[in-house]
Amino acid sequence: MENLDVMVLRTLRDWRQAGHRALLATVVRTWGSSPRPVGSIMALREDGAVVGSVSGGCIEDDLIYRHTSAYAQTDKSQPVQQMPSGAPAFVKYGISADEAHRFGLPCGGTLELLLEYDPDAQSLAELVKALESGQLMQRSVRLADGAVVLAPSLAPAELSLSATELLNTFGPEYRMLLIGAGQLTEYLATMALFSGFAVTVCDPRDEYRSAWSVPGAKVLSEMPDDVVAAFKPDGRSCVVALTHDPKLDDLALLEALDSEAFYVGAIGSRRNNEARRERMIEHFGQTEASLARLRGPIGIYIGSKTPPEIAVSVMAEILAVKNGVALPRDVDVSHAKNERAVPENDTALAEGLVCGTANG
């Protein structure tokens, strides 16, 4: 699954280029609990087609009813609605407890949307092109008439709303680079794709690449450190080493640590991760300070033993770091295992079974 904002904007672009009337709805304010955060967008076509979300579904249904002819097509008793034209308009949902209940909003939840009618197709095409090329973009909407100005942005920013304009920053996609194309990688790649990451998998080993079965992920055969350098990880990128092979993992991790990647980590037992750090300090001139960002054992402690559960654990940690959530120490794998006196399994380690687990 691609980044949701890009998908919404691309679909809206296609609708407008094909001559359809459509609107773009943006969550601009929330009070109390709300199902979607400020900045969330959805597009609505004149016949009722919807992409994206601003709630859990009830508000989308109301927008369809109020702004399209969708219901009149199947229920002749319903009046034919026409999508408005002109300047953007604001609409609030959940002002009263009864309305909040009607629209399925959490207790006390209220949200406000800005509706842009028939956004300019050319401007949408320019925005989507920039996002697809990896550019972070700011979109400014003049409230008086809906005129849009696009500009590159240096850093992500929260949505800003003034008396005269709306500023929203979009893209680019979050990216994940996975080193190693084994079974665990397949589960993690699948979860990452459905979480909106663009996924690249690197493995120079033919036997692993030939068995790869996850569509949507880009698979490369070059050496991992070269791939990391070409990947150019930025603040919306993460790099995860999953091969258990120092020849493949170590140099790639060192390359990633010199980047702006928000997450750099490697699979492995406590013993293997400690050995990795010792190698990097002894042979590559690293220090404890330079390795402070290197995560391992990766994941959160949920007692995982199987590849799919380990992938859930790792994906949860990556999403927490991405979203700026500080995880409690109790879920740190090393701390949790030490507290529970969980032993390393020497036999399994020798066979390469447990060395790759996050929790087991």
Automatic annotation (TrEMBL):
Origin: domain of life: Bacteria
Boundaries of every XdhC- CoxI domain copy: 15-70
XdhC Rossmann domain: residues covered: 176-318
Pfam families hit by this protein: XdhC_C, XdhC_CoxI
InterPro entries: MoCofactor_Util/Proc, XdhC_CoxI, XdhC_Rossmann_dom
Protein name as it appears in the record: Cytochrome oxidase I
Organism this protein belongs to: Rhodoferax koreensis
